[in-house]
Structure formats: C-alpha cells, structure tokens
Known about the structure:
Structural class: alpha+beta
Distance between the termini: 34 Å
Oligomer: single chain
Radius of gyration: 15 Å
Amino acid sequence: xxxxxPWKKELARIAKQLxxxxxxxxxxxxxxxxxxxxxxxxxxxxxxxMEDHRIDDELAASPIAVDLAPSAGRANYLIDHQRVFNxxxxxxxxxxxxxxxxxxKIIHSYxxxxxxxxxxxxxxxxxxxxxxxxxxx
Length: 137
C-alpha cells in the first residue's frame, strides 16, 4: 500500500501545469517535450493510485471522450508530425474510454503530439499507443 497524500499532491501540481498549456497557439520544441513529460507523469500517477485502489472505482471507470483515427499504414516510430498526420485515416471515430484505459494507453505510448487547431490553440493531443500501433491513433 502506498501513502496517497504525496502522490495526489504531485498530481494536483501536474494538473495545474497542464492547464497552463490549454489554448496556446504555438509550442516550442522544449514546451512540447515538457507537455509530453507532464502527461506521462500525470497518467502514471493516476495509474499507480488506481492500481493501489486509492482512487474511487467510479472515478477510474469514468468515461473520457476520445477520437480514434485508424492508421493507414505502418506504425510511426519517428517523431515526425507530418508523417503521423499523413498516416491517419480521417474522419475519426468518436469513442468513450474509461480513465484507466486512457491512462494505460498514454503510459504505454511511444508518441504524444500536441494538436494546435486554428483559433482555439492547443485543445488535445494525439497519442500513438503500443497497444494499437498498427490499428488506431
């Protein structure tokens, strides 16, 4: 059993930092790397707390809206934005995944790309997960 207090405190710190990225219209390479690190750390902490039953089962099962984009080719192992977007088949499929599933996908991902759209700036990220790397992003 782990003591959840320091983990939850760290998770709150990470969440606050992640909120500062919302709406940004441009990210430097360094900022993009920090965003990826924060997502990995945050979802890893969630995963550890869920694994040790320190997060309510109802919260762990809560649905997260996602867009799944089928891959049109081989897995993208190189961090090349254009290559990743060229390999996606659009339109995307709307889905709902449990928080625990999303956490697993992110901590087992090999590529996390911020998506900056038009006037709304950063609102979401693309995650290439090892679980479905030949199937969907």
